[in-house]
Design goal:
mainly alpha, Cytochrome Bc1 Complex, Chain D, domain 2, two-stranded antiparallel ribbon, 10 helices, globular
Length: 252
């Protein structure tokens, strides 16, 4: 009798491909912690991207992606590579399974397609004349010229010599420790429409800002010079000048 029962169980397992046991999920399930089961742009974005780039692609600490100008200037291939591989030296991690992340190639494509479908909008008519936005190599700009450009185009908001004013300091060592060259270039070219920074033309949401009236759009050379001046302020050990003798406050 026992042998007959075992034989029947064996036949049942064989019929099911020997790939099912009681308690084992018959398909990937999100509630069981299987990240590969998640699909749909809203859920994938909310679980993997919005912590840095904002719930609707804006108002996050990282680059706003809900920006038609930015979306018109970056290719699908570049976005897929960035999501898959991350950006070295920054807080942008590699999300692909092949790089130790949680997302399959299919899920990454869903995120890119969702961004395109929801956030492409209508880019400004001058988008086709944009300077390069992708930072493929180290800048060849002149830091001295970059300072002159900064004090003319950028100082009204960021303060003379970049010390900060109505907007923060772009040469703060802590900021530069977190900001990649790619992020800085994209911000100069596209601005930050979510926080009121104009693009390289001086426009914010299609309107020239008062601080840039009478000034020509930034040229590729000027952007290179700005990049050189800003990034020249990076230091090996960013942050506050902590006391050399250690913290002697009560409790330490």
């Amino acid at each position: 009798m026992m042998r007959s029962t075992l034989a029947l169980i064996g036949l049942g397992l064989a019929a099911n491909g020997c790939d099912w046991m009681p308690g084992k999920p018959t398909a990937p399930q999100i509630e069981r912690g299987n990240a590969e089961a998640m699909h749909g742009f809203a859920d994938l974005w909310g679980s993997n991207c919005q912590g840095c780039h904002g719930a609707d692609g804006i108002w996050g600490p990282a680059r706003p992606l809900n920006d038609p100008l930015y979306q018109s200037l970056v290719t699908d291939d570049w976005l897929i590579a960035t999501v898959s591989n991350g950006i070295d030296g920054t807080l942008m991690p590699a999300h692909s399974v092949s790089n130790g992340g949680r997302l399959t190639n299919e899920q990454i494509q869903e995120i890119i397609s969702g961004m395109r479908a929801n956030w492409m909008g209508t880019p400004p008519p001058y988008a086709a004349q944009s300077p390069a936005i992708i930072n493929f190599k180290d800048t060849a700009g002149d830091p001295a010229k970059g300072l002159t450009t900064f004090n003319t185009w950028c100082a009204p908001c960021h303060g003379k010599n970049g010390v900060g004013a109505m907007a923060g300091s772009p040469i703060d060592s802590s900021f530069l420790a977190l900001a990649s060259d790619q992020m800085i270039r994209a911000t100069i070219v596209c601005g930050r429409p979510d926080v009121g920074m104009p693009d390289w033309q001086g426009n914010l949401n299609g309107t020239l800002v008062p601080q840039r009236e009478g000034l020509a759009p930034l040229s590729t050379t000027q952007i290179e010079d700005l990049m050189a001046w800003i990034t020249s302020h990076r230091v090996e050990f960013p942050g506050q000048p902590y006391p050399t003798g250690g913290n002697t406050s009560p409790g330490f």
